[in-house]
Specification:
globular; 4-stranded antiparallel sheet; 8 strands; single chain; mainly beta; 141 residues
Amino acid sequence: MRSLKFLLGAVAFVASSGGAGANPQFEFLAAPQINLSLVYRLDKLTGDVIACQYAHNPGKTDVEPGAYGVTQCYRGGEGATKQEPGDYGLIATRHEQEGGVFRVDYRNGALSICYLFVQREKQGDRDVVADQYVVCTTPYK
């Protein structure tokens, strides 16, 4: 009897907290490019897209103690920020050299391509990365 009460309590807890049947708000998808450690995060309700990747700690090497990597994330820029409310998802191509992903709206069939934009500036005789952020093309129906 005691184990039955525990089991019923556990089932009630899972049901009240959403459990395995809950529809998560975020979706994650790795870029198809095989030499790029980039993962996109999508807010499925708003269409907001960011990207994160593995980066080394500054001044550390791969083989020394304490040389753990860090998660470096890039904000959403033009077209990648909040969209009209929808039912958004991410789809990757099967092209192994593609760094971008498609953002789709399952409600209206619109899609756009999102990718990490690298903004460069000239400093003397060399180009320097000034900023990096995710951009998405205008949705197409």
